[in-house]
UniProtKB/TrEMBL annotation:
It comes from Bradyrhizobium cytisi. This is AEC family transporter. GO terms for biological process: transmembrane transport. The chain crosses the membrane at residues 6-25, 37-54, 66-85, 97-120, 126-145, 173-195, 201-219, 231-251, 257-279, 291-313. Keywords: Cell membrane, Membrane, Transmembrane, Transmembrane helix, Transport. Belongs to the auxin efflux carrier (TC 2.A.69) family. It is a multi-pass membrane protein. Its main location: membrane.
Length: 314
């Protein structure tokens, strides 16, 4: 019952967002404004406040990154191998890179943040922020550099490829919320009660807004394209990656809360950023779209199991 109380409201809000478009209560473009509010204002406020006021477990970030990104790396390699077997034209190695991105790039912001905070509480804020702070730049850099390598279209230095990603990172509201939160925490000044209450009210809107936006956004994703590829990506993302993350977290002797964050983040379905990557390179656009839609649907079944496993660890 406790697991249902954690997971069911999350997916109910996603369903509400989807239904609002389906029944034309809002337009399909409404997700843009809601998403901008959630990810530019409310969730950065949420991250800032939780980092400033929460107690964090004393754990090495390297061990935590080792568990999460070790699982991501092993899943990435497995995805490249599976893609090579499935591809009809062996020379299309660019497809393999997009297939790998679709197999590891989880929806850890829209879905991950609300679910992790709901399941683990504010104790999860520190580990969660450490993963969030490097996830997007690391995955984009790895994807872009590997795509440049396999396509042999490199026209400039590695720095020329990396610079735009770093520039976007410096302006990313989520990263700014994390950065300012860490900096303010180190001052030891805490938060004035009026300021704290104001930020708290703003932060409370973040998770519901993100989930509603996710539901609205899902309306444009369809389960279409090569079904074997869609199923393979979803299986790697929803089953293989969290299983590997759990094993690595145990081997690295991570505390229960940190293990919970690592495994839950690893269990998130394929996110919209994987679709954006596919569109950018015009590779496997339909299969990745299908993986976003099917993965989110299947996550309603797989995530309660993961939450129960995490609860058992605690």
């Amino acid at each position: 019952m406790a697991t249902v109380l954690i997971v069911a409201p999350v997916f109910a809000l996603i369903a509400a967002g989807y239904a609002s478009v389906l029944f034309r209560f809002v337009s399909g473009g409404a997700h843009k404004g809601i998403s901008e509010f959630a990810f530019s204002i409310s969730i950065p406020a949420l991250l800032f406040r939780t980092i400033v006021v929460s107690e964090f477990p004393d754990v090495s970030p390297w061990r935590m990154w080792g568990a999460y990104y070790g699982a991501l790396a092993l899943t990435w390699v497995a995805a490249l191998m599976i893609s090579a077997v499935m591809r009809e034209r062996r020379e299309d190695r660019e497809d393999g890179v997009v297939f790998a991105i679709g197999s590891v790039y989880g929806n850890i912001v829209m879905l991950g943040i609300p679910l992790v905070l709901s399941a683990l509480g504010n104790e999860a804020a520190g580990p969660m922020s450490l993963i969030l702070s490097v996830n997007t730049p690391l995955l984009w850099l790895c994807g872009i550099l590997q795509m440049e390598l396999v396509s042999r279209k490199r026209t400039g230095s590695a720095l020329a490829v990396i610079r735009p990603v770093l520039a976007d990172l410096a302006r990313n509201p989520l990263m700014l919320g994390i950065g300012f939160g860490v900096a303010w925490r180190f001052t030891g000044l805490g938060l004035n009660p009026v300021v704290d209450k104001t930020i708290e009210l703003l932060a409370q809107a973040g998770s519901p807004a993100a989930l509603i936006a996710l539901g609205i956004n899902l309306f444009r994703f369809e389960v279409k394209g090569e079904m074997p590829s869609v199923v393979a990506m979803s299986t790697l993302k929803l089953l293989a990656m969290p299983a590997i993350a759990f094993v690595l977290a145990k081997l690295l002797n991570l505390p229960p809360v940190v293990t919970g964050v690592v495994v839950l983040f690893a269990a998130m379905p394929t996110g919209a950023n994987a679709y954006i990557f596919a569109v950018q390179y015009q590779r496997l656009v339909n299969p990745v779209s299908g993986a976003v839609a099917l993965g989110t649907l299947l996550a309603a079944v797989t995530l309660p199991v993961v939450v129960m496993v995490v609860a058992g660890v605690r």
